[in-house]
Amino acid sequence: MCKIKILLFLLTYQLSEGGAYHWIDGESDMPALCPGKYCGRVRLDQGNFSACGACPRGHIVLNPIQSSECVQCTGLPDLYDYLYLAAIFITTLLSHWVAIDFAAKRNKLTKEIIALHVSALLETCVSGVVSVLLFEP
Q1: Quick one: three-class SS letters along 25-40?
Q2: What is the pLDDT at residue 90?
Q3: Residues 91/94/98/103 CA torsion (nearest 10 deg)
Q4: Which end of the chain is more exposed for a tag (fewer CB within 10 A), N or C?
Q5: pLDDT tens profile 66-87
Q6: Are residues 17 and 48 in contact, defined by beta-carbon separation less than 8 angstroms?
Q7: How far is CA 134 from the centre of its chain?
Q8: Of the candidates 29, 31, 21, 35, which has an alpha carbon nearest to the alpha carbon of residue 66?
Q9: pLDDT one-digit tens code per residue, 26-61
Q10: Residue ranges of the alpha helices (H) in the chain?
């Protein structure tokens, strides 16, 4: 019986004003909070802020507890950014190498297969470097 009372109390508290999360839906005059860690508001030309949504590419919400304004990223990449790029690089390279090995249908490692592996490595390295340099974060 006690468990039911506690459950009913928690349910009514969650539905009341005290336990609910409120945000301004639509445009606002200030960067009001958005209901999520990865969404924010963009400053519009009129001076007000847009509705909650994903920040544009190269923008981030710095402190989602205080403000939901999307600001441009100016800091250096973190360790996790480099680890993400390394994971994408390794996945792409290994998929190339697996495709080469399946297509070769040989049990021996010949000069031709080694040349294909080296060319796949060069292709992946060049495409990764060009992609990072060509596109803005």
Answers
A1: CCCECCCCCCCCCCEE
A2: 97
A3: 100
A4: N
A5: 888 888 888 888 899 899 999 9
A6: no
A7: 19
A8: 31
A9: 777 787 888 877 788 888 888 888 888 888 888 888
A10: 2-15, 79-104, 111-134
